[in-house]
């Protein structure tokens, strides 16, 4: 019969505040051993005492992790614990169990806990072991770095030790706190489930966040932790560290990294004194309620001095209840129950009555495997004793069936609460009244030491932020209570149902005696109590626990591993010559034990290799009898290079910032596989289309392409066209060349980003340009393999604060009807400018759109979605990419490069020029600044194009591919991934227009729809839902305004520009903008800028004057409260796409930004200073590290300019497909009597316009008619039907036709 052992790691601290690292115990009632941690702390010592008293006769060795401290060795510190009054009953009645205690000299601060090789070998030799980890620093307001080192890093090292050196660990129990639920609203109920910290709809990356906080300097880390705690409603750094610990433990559970066991979390509420044996009233420190009682006894709770509401709950739990729950959870894991689903199958399954040790029939206790392990050899199991295991074979058979069903996925982590608020609640008023009655009779003597400690505890805890009623569910504990036998529950009750009056008197008597020197009062009918003082006993040196690694223990032969009977397939990584047979085979082990196991399993592994099918990802789908086979047929592989192989690509907006980065990334990543790359450009500023494309290719952005991928430049072809004209003004030959391409993918990134342009200008540039491009694709490019439209995440500015924008369509609504985008655009274009401005402003106000740019983008998305729904892109699909605030490049080829002063670049210029002075900032420092590097936005765009080119046309098809690939990558996680990415559980978000009488923000969005009344309709369409991808950082790597401001302050304080208006104001996280003060400061700054610009111009510094004006314009517009709104942006689709692409492509084009904001910010500011302000590039230093290196512009020779489409002699294929063409929307017909005359217009030489996306010529409005510019036909006054020449322009008056 195999035995199980318990692992106990001692705590980190001996006095207040204690740090305990919990026990771990395993499941054999005969000769089982244990390894315990946290024994020198309060909770850990109570768990150890209960373990020895309840199961001491059955457990084997009990290992106690303790570090040498204060001149005492680990053995002496463990001896002091065993000599306390808490262990009096164990010393008298269970003295034999004390011989099983072994000290481990180690520390959670070191790798492998600082254990010696002998100690590690002894632990690794144990056949089975369970760990209960209760060690923590409970100093609530410690600096965040200290809290993380004590709690998060200690937990990580312990988990790593278990993973690497204890492959037969049967379970890991982590003791947390119910106060992680303080982030919930008042009077809500904390469920016994994981409660992750969220950035929008994405859980916070605990590893990344912990590393960033530990890597930063202390002051910065504390500031950021304070901001995070405020945003997540966490009242101290202790809770933040505990949240990160829970996330780490849950990750180990989801990834199955505790090879032979499961993982569970125990959350106690406010831990108070013991309620029952062995020492009623005993308390180990002055933390929590003990400190409050001391404060009351010393008279701190005077009139009006309490910050707590008397009717709020005081959720306090006796420490022996916490210990019982921890042992019950360890028993659950040791019984082979690995997740919540398995646990409730066991709870709900009928089980026959069982005989107890005395022969009496007991109730349904089904977790006996903790004490009675399964005998895999086939011999009959002993049924002499009853504990926490399945004794009869029938019940064990049911457990095996449940195990097989759950092997396909890890399920939900087990969480158990030790609390009283839902089973035996008590109010603050009742606790206060009990203390008043007791200390009114038993008044303490005045003691200075007690006064100091008591006041410290009271001063911190007596704060309204700690007074919050959150009920704590104990459903799992009540279910566990039904499973355990009655005799065990008598010794270790899981729920506290006693009298608060007697318990309170016992507690106060103990606090008075142990911490205040009061004599123990007699128990009276008026003040009954059960406390009796037990003195400390010194353990003789020869009776101290032995030290692990020095006892000469031989490693026993490893028990035969049970045959794996899982029915779910397991995908295992294939290495050079072998395949890991099971997930349990991972991790290193000290000594030769693991090598022996591997040698024994070598034969079975060879069989697995013979039966394995290796796919292209290096994953073996095992067909061994131990592992069920997987049949996955014809699963496509998604790759940008393969999807775009031999396909032509048409890019618009390549002379703008985003478009140029897309073009560069396209050539660098997939240029060798691509066909022709057409770049749509219009002649402008005296330069031809070829010359303008040549200027783009000669910029520093394309330096790496010119040096290493020069062959790809020959594939670039200029398209002389303009989005302002039908068929884009392309010649017949150019159209024929496009139509001759076997397959073409269109990436449309051209747009006007002038945010407050008149609505008619915005519509002509954005909506009409998109419509003409879509019409050209529909009518002339039937072989189009996909159309990608670049929009903006700021269409989600209509959502309520702190909501999350889903990667789905966001529809504008009139009541319950979606807006007719074509009709609305035609109406706004048909009326005069004043009427259009009035109506657009009303619409923007009712839909909560902050500018006309967003209104035009909403209409563009509706137009693109219409083409998708109607299937008007004949051979391809349609997708939308929404980048957030686009900033500089984060990585290759040109870190820090930025193409214009829009967005964050303008803010940086404004800061460098001294516009951000006292009270001039309109943004709240704790709100999010969702900014994304431009190379990330370009990578997402290329990923979307590859998705369409691979034949994926809808969101449903996309997630079918995602889930299929997940099955091949790791079949065990297939069920989880399917649940995480449902095909289409909700439809598009709809934005309804507000009632004219209701001036409040209309609630928009999936997250708020149920509570705020937004109708979410389920679209049932044959073509499925349009694909939408976000390029954003708020849910993956968020940055707050305060952090960005602080980075700019540190950088420009050292690298100050030559011309600026004033100094730099140090940022404060407590800053709150006052609107009228901000308005006055902006006016004063505007006057200063005007005067300074004039002076600079007079002295010949025209460039500096222009920078000053441009910087102020960007700052003046953006520095407005209407732009300061935290809306999280979901990137679930992008994360799914990231898992589909191969690693080598992701290295060249990462889809998600996970880098350091500090280094990126310095690189960005160095680039802005050099490119736009004429500052020299500063040196990179440890204090201000950056990666920017200036790359000069290169003039492309005329003979190397890209050729012009339509002039290369390409033969046209068959023209447009037959059949009626769908009408364009809106339809515009020539007005009667239109006369043409030459127009001479000076081209716009604005730098922002020049650097921004390709735009058409601007029409104007006269007497209700739309006047657009069109080129005259080259040979006649009649315009050709299939193309436009580039002749002199004529003015045509067009009337709108419905």
UniProtKB/TrEMBL annotation:
Pfam families: NAD_binding_4 (PF07993). Residues 37-325, 651-939 form the Thioester reductase (TE) domain. Belongs to the fatty acyl-CoA reductase family. Residues 1-36, 1210-1263 are annotated as: Disordered. Catalyzes the reduction of fatty acyl-CoA to fatty alcohols. Residues 1247-1256 have a biased composition (Acidic residues). It catalyses: a long-chain fatty acyl-CoA + 2 NADPH + 2 H(+) = a long-chain primary fatty alcohol + 2 NADP(+) + CoA. This is Fatty acyl-CoA reductase. GO terms for molecular function: alcohol-forming long-chain fatty acyl-CoA reductase activity; alcohol-forming very long-chain fatty acyl-CoA reductase activity. GO terms for biological process: long-chain fatty-acyl-CoA metabolic process. It is an enzyme of class 1 (oxidoreductase). Its EC number is 1.2.1.84. It comes from the Eukaryota. Keywords: Lipid biosynthesis, Lipid metabolism, NADP, Oxidoreductase. It comes from Volvox carteri f. nagariensis. Residues 1226-1246 have a biased composition (Low complexity).
